[in-house]
Task: inverse folding
């Protein structure tokens, strides 16, 4: 949790600059969109922003971190702070309607009211449209922060009503070095640093057994592709337990994409972009089996699937289909002999 | 009082303040001034173009104390009341949150009550596209004939979602995206009032990024001012938008144009680590290449674009071909579409870069240009092709004819001379000689013309002459030596024959004649066959074997084409397919067949001509051939092997002797002359007189 804006400045200079300037000059806009990759601590900044606005004893633009309001914000118990983070893949219209209703009433405590929507890309069209009017004119001293990883999936009418703050991704190598220091396998560290740019999350993932299992599963799948008589679909079935968690599915999908990208990178002789460093041999073998176009095709297939994962689809079948496509491509590659150069 | 965002502070208060949309403000002003305000309006257009603002101005204008007036006064009680939202007769409804039938019914019920303070009750229904089907229909009747004191203003960004029955009941106004110039003008107004210090270029950049949405532009201005309150420069704007600076754009574009995917991707990584947004990068690149197209093709300067002044941009624009630019824009646009929905936008863009770079391998624009050139040449070639084909056909036909006629010509006199010795009387023979005299004379004349005067040996002249006609230097189809040998022999034979003839003329004894003729008949048989089945031909092929060619011929020894104007070609081709190639010396081959009949058929000169045409058409070269029964050929090979073992260098073989083989060199188009079907002819050939034809 950020204590003051100087902490934010270390990693997100631009964001800190805009917000502190706005606060100091009393030019705080009523709505912001915080946009940036996973692990850039957007929510932390949003909470700090709320704390600064609510603090009864602010020092310049920094909150005091000692007053009643600050403490309550920290514990997420302040009645004027609404954090909207409903479970599920969609933020429904009812949630927004309730919020609007709540905001239309007089506040319980004096001072500004702030609502923060976590993962605002989960809005469905009706909830997004419902929010539009409120976003434009939320009423006296109401501030709103929408947090998202990809603001392009928001309605353009929402975007135009807010100020957008871009969060910079954290330098990957810092995370990687940090993980390596923790005695994490270099390849594994490399991949995790690609997946998240948040240190605590990265550490958590690195220590998580399941993540490691997923990593092993992915490498196994690709190693199986080099063998004619092994199908990875079975290993996928055996790892069924892993896929009960949405986060794990996301990691799995991303690792597949990274691996395929490595193959493509190898194909293009961009060796230094390779993430699965200790898999180089397998990557080389697989790269020889397919053409550049095929490699691109499979990568596109995976990206396509990763987009579909947002919806309610049958995961097992979707992954099976993907593996079949890969197996057809890699195992029965017809031109493998002629294209080895 | 807390701070109000600039775009809310600077909402236009009357029609004159509205940026752009002159076609709409003018219409509305005239309608207001003439007191001809409609009861329902439908405003549609993209975000930030002033729909809600104009709706509010309209609400003020109709209720202003000075009404009818073109513009609200903004000083009277009514105007101020509506502005502050204290007059409850102007009702703003958010259709997105009140989209059910129930809400609309409630609205319909309230419509009939008179307004409380002002003349008109104005319903501003925002985001009207979110109404449900039922709600739309519930609104229909009210919308068509509302009470006189009610005005509806419907606003939407998505006109296509509004059902046509609603659209037809309203006056429709389509709002356009505000032009960059209008945005700049409006921004400058605000900048002047807010005392913001900002670079001219930065304003341009803000206006460009707003993409026609004034609200976006003002928000952005608000933001950059917070970012750098001292002096806003272009770089600040780029940084906040996540946009790419011009220099980097140019570098990236260069990498793409040079198909350097590695460099492009590392530049991309660099940009992203500086917080640039993938979508913006893609958009920037698309714009960049669009600008290059505009610049190189139209030379038209769009003042709002910053790029045109740039030296390097101009250089790139001049160098890049349209095709390349189109291709790059195409790929990037596709990627952009995917980026909008993906959680891995970076990978999508990287893929797009790879695709562009891939272009180098597959359909590089240089290659494409080359293809254009090739296509052009191909067109030229094709026009020649028909001509050449016709020529070629003629030529090859001539050559084949010549080959056949050579053997005929060289042989003809021999037979003409010989035949009488066996079957005719001496007197007739002399006549024959006389008859043949003019022919020889003719040949002599020919020879003289060619300045090859060998009067003593007419036969040789003929042979050599035909040779000259037949073969160019490159085609050594028939060995000169072989020809000479043949003619030499022929000459010798003629001499002996003539001597004999003279003897007959002198009326020698009949006995002698019989003895002579008996010997001759035997010799004749060989000779006769050798006219058609010449062992020297076999010798030559066997002594100059070309195994590679043989294999290649065998591999393609099927599917012979037809020759259009020859009836028999199909039949001959089918015969040909049954044969085996046993030896080849490139321009001469030996084929073996199961039966002697087939051999005889194939060796008939007229047929041979057709067969050679077929072979020519199939293999594109002239191949002379000899067809032998497989039994004969196996004898020949045996003999050849024996002699080969003995170490002979040029192996000479004994003459071909076989019962079934006939001299067919004199038969002219047997098949064609005969009305009988070929199969019957074959049967007759096989079984002789025993064949009876059932009618």
Result:
């Amino acid at each position: 949790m950020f204590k003051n804006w100087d902490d934010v400045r270390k990693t997100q200079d631009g964001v800190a600059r805009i917000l502190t300037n706005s606060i100091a000059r009393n030019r705080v806009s009523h709505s912001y969109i915080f946009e940036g990759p996973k692990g850039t601590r957007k929510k932390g900044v949003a909470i700090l922003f709320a704390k600064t606005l609510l603090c009864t004893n602010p020092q310049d633009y920094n909150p005091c971190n000692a007053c009643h309001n600050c403490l309550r914000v920290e514990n997420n118990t302040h009645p004027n702070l609404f954090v909207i983070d409903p479970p599920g893949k969609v933020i429904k219209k009812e949630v927004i309607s309730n919020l609007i209703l709540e905001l239309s009433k007089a506040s319980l405590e004096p001072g500004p009211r702030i609502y923060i929507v976590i993962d605002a890309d989960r809005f469905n069209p009706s909830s997004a449209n419902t929010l539009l009017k409120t976003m434009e004119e939320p009423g006296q001293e109401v501030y709103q922060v929408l947090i998202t990883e990809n603001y392009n999936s928001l309605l353009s009418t929402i975007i135009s009503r807010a100020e957008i703050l871009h969060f910079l991704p954290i330098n990957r190598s810092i995370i990687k070095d940090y993980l390596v220091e923790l005695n994490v396998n270099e390849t594994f560290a490399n991949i995790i640093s690609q997946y998240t740019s948040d240190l605590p999350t990265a550490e958590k993932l690195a220590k998580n057994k399941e993540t490691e299992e997923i990593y092993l599963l992915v490498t196994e799948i690709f190693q199986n592709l080099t063998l004619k008589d092994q199908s990875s679909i079975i290993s996928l079935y055996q790892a069924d337990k892993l896929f009960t968690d949405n986060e794990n599915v996301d990691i799995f999908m991303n690792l597949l994409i990274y691996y395929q990208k490595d193959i493509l990178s190898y194909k293009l002789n961009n060796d230094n972009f390779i993430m699965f460093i200790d898999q180089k041999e397998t990557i080389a073998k697989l790269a020889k089996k397919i053409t550049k176009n095929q490699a691109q095709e499979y990568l596109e297939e995976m990206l396509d699937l990763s987009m579909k994962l947002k919806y309610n689809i049958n995961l097992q079948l979707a992954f099976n289909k993907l593996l079949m496509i890969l197996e057809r491509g890699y195992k029965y590659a017809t031109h493998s002999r002629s294209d080895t150069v | 009082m807390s701070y109000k965002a600039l775009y809310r502070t600077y909402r236009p208060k009357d029609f004159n303040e509205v940026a752009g949309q002159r076609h709409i403000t003018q219409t509305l002003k005239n309608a207001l001034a003439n007191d001809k305000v409609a009861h329902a309006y439908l405003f549609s257009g993209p975000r930030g173009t002033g729909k809600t603002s104009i709706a509010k101005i309209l609400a003020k204008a109709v209720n202003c104390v000075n009404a009818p007036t073109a513009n609200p006064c903004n000083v009277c009680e009514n105007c101020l009341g509506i502005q502050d939202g204290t007059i409850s007769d102007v009702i703003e409804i958010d259709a997105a949150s009140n989209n059910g039938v129930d809400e609309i019914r409630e609205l319909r019920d309230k419509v009939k009550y008179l307004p409380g303070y002002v003349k008109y009750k104005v319903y501003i229904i925002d985001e009207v596209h979110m109404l449900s089907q039922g709600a739309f229909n519930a609104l229909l009747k009210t919308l068509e004939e509302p009470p006189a004191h009610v005005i509806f203003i419907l606003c939407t960004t998505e006109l296509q979602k509004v059902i046509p029955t609603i659209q037809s009941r309203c006056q429709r106004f389509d709002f356009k995206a505000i032009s960059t110039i209008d945005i700049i003008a409006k921004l400058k107004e605000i900048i002047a009032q807010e005392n913001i210090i900002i670079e001219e270029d930065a304003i341009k950049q803000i206006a460009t990024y707003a993409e026609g949405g004034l609200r976006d532009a003002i928000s952005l201005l608000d933001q950059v001012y917070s970012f750098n309150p001292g002096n806003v420069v272009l770089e600040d704007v780029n940084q906040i938008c996540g946009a790419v600076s011009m220099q980097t754009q140019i570098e990236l574009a260069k990498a793409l144009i040079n198909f350097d995917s590695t460099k492009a991707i590392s530049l991309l990584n660099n940009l992203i680590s500086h917080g640039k947004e993938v979508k913006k990068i893609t958009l920037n690149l698309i714009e960049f290449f669009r600008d290059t197209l505009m610049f190189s093709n139209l030379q038209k300067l769009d003042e709002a674009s910053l790029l045109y002044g740039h030296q390097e941009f101009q250089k790139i624009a001049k160098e890049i071909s349209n095709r390349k630019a189109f291709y790059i824009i195409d790929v990037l646009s596709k990627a952009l579409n995917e980026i909008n929905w993906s959680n891995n936008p970076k990978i999508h863009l990287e893929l797009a870069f790879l695709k562009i770079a891939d272009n180098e391998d597959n359909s590089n624009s240089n290659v494409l240009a080359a293809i254009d050139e090739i296509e052009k040449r191909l067109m030229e070639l094709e026009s020649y092709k028909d001509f050449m084909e016709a020529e070629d056909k003629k030529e090859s036909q001539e050559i084949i004819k010549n080959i056949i006629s050579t053997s005929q010509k060289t042989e003809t006199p021999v037979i003409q001379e010989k035949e009488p010795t066996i079957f005719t009387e001496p007197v007739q023979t002399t006549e024959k000689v006389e008859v043949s005299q003019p022919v020889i004379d003719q040949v002599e004349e020919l020879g003289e013309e060619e300045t090859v005067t060998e009067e003593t040996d007419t036969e040789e002249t003929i042979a050599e002459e035909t040779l000259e006609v037949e073969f160019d230097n490159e085609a050594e189809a028939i060995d000169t030596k072989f020809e000479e040998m043949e003619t030499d022999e022929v000459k010798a034979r003629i001499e002996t024959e003539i001597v004999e003839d003279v003897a007959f003329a002198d009326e020698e004894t009949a006995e002698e004649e019989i003895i002579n003729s008996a010997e001759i008949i035997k010799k004749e048989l060989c000779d006769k066959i050798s006219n058609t089945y010449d062992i020297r031909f076999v010798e030559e092929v066997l002594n100059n074997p070309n195994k590679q060619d043989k294999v290649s011929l065998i591999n393609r020894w099927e599917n012979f084409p037809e020759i259009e104007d020859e009836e028999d070609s199909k039949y001959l081709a089918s015969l040909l397919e049954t044969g085996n190639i046993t030896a080849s010396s490139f321009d001469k081959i030996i084929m073996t067949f199961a039966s002697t009949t087939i051999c005889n058929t194939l060796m008939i000169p007229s047929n041979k001509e057709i067969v050679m045409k077929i072979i020519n058409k199939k293999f594109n070269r002239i191949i002379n051939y000899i067809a032998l029964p497989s039994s004969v050929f196996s004898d020949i090979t045996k003999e050849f092997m024996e002699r080969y073992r003995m170490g002979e260098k040029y192996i000479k073989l004994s003459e071909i002797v076989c019962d079934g083989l006939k001299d067919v060199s004199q038969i002219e188009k047997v098949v064609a002359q005969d009305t009988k079907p070929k199969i019957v002819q074959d049967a007759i050939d096989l079984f002789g007189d025993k064949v009876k034809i059932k009618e």
